[in-house]
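Q: Could you fold this chain for me?
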Amino acid sequence: MSVPSVKPKGPIIDPALCRCCGSIKKCRLLTVEYDWQGNKEIYSEMFMDVFGLLLSRLDGETKDACICATCVSRLRDASVFRQQVLRAEELFLKSRLESKGDNINIEVKIEPDFHSDMGDHDDCDDDEEIVTKKVKVEKAAPKIVLTRSGKRKEKSKSTGKSRHQIRTIVIERPDPSKPKRLPPHMRITDDEMVHLNTKTIIENSYVCPFRNRISFYYCYYCRDQFTNPAELREHTLTHNPKKMFEMENKKIPKVDVTRVDCRLCDDKIDDVETLKTHLRDTHKKKVYDVKNEFLKFRLTLNNLTCTECGSVFPFFDSLQKHMIDHFGTYTCDVCGSCFLEPTSLRSHIKTHNKVDANFPCEICGKNLKSKYSMGLHVRTVHEKKPTVNCYKCEAAFLSYAQRNRHLIEAHGDQRTFPCEMCDKVYNRRKTLMEHMRRSHLKVYKHQCDLCDQKFYLPSRLKEHMATHTGERNFRCELCDKCYPRLQSLQEHKRTHATERRFECDVCNMAFAQIVSLKTHMKTHNQFEMPSY
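A: Sure. Below is the predicted structure, expressed as structure tokens.
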């Protein structure tokens, strides 16, 4: 898990030409200072620092000095890699200088060795040039003796003659107040710090981890479904928070931070950063200096507010997509789209590599997306072979609806899913979810470009557009009348049927259409006497 990043702050030029990849898209300026993760960055200077490149004509027109988000991401990676190499080189040199035994830091001042040209000397002048080096000496150090002048000489093992060197020993004692630096293989990575912080926060506070699907909330531990966030929070308290980290999940956790109080004491805490300070100082918990351990939400029954910028959204789907603007760290190299998790990015990349392939059915000509879908279509539609098996007996069915009916009738399963917002009951969870989104959550994503009306299904929007264009694409097969909407055609077809489903409560007359019944009811209302 990587630490989410903050959306860079600075001017965006759209459209503009990227100087690095040549694409025309939303770009940032190379010479302007941007704020990213609390740090200031100027991309032209980063090119000079990392590659030694001086880009030309950056003082010209604004659109000629730009860089796209994809190339910015690559430049940051190169800068981070450069810093990594420098740190590794520093550690390598330091480890080479360290001895395997008890080490003593010494500073060695070495005079130029003149004995090869001028013979041996017992002393050397004080004003000669001094060369300074720093080394580390093991226990078995070369034998050092003092000369008559108080200067030190080292006996040469080969000739026994002294070389004119001055060595000033400086012993560096370790400072107990400074923390010891661990070797690289024992250090904790940023991802591990994020994970450990998340574990500490969730186990020691009342924050509520959760899962979601569409606009429904699920308990992180037992997968129970909720539409009311208050009920979700109350239910989550019945679970042990330590079990969360026994469950394998590679996605970034979603956490409701409506209540951020300490479990270890009675202190009331408003935000996660204050909680981390409280756990570190008061309860001596190990909390690392990292931010954005998880995606933070404040779940409410109605409109939802972004915890980062205060934007308001009508349903959770929209808010979750908006969070990518704040924490999207995984960028597509092809189109520049951002994602919260690497799995989402990998799924997105497959859409670029996808080859449009149709597998037509040889019987009816219907195009299927895959060979498997085409074979399933032939078996279920044309050959009428049952493909859905009952998990309690050996029966097989053509559809899941038939299997569910079999489970109720043959095995006595109570497969009912009541709506918590109204009195309706469904026999399939999927049907209940569709009802919730359409009737209660009002998830209308398809809006007409010519008016303010919104629709749940794209097919309904297409039918609605006929009211603007005047098209009548739904024709009656019996009388050739045309209608702009499918529903209008279906109502019209009832006029040709003999079935009269709509009955008057006053005189018991029956009608084929509800419109005819409403017109008939007016004949009763006009004879009603006013009440005094």
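A (continued): Residues 189-301 form one domain.
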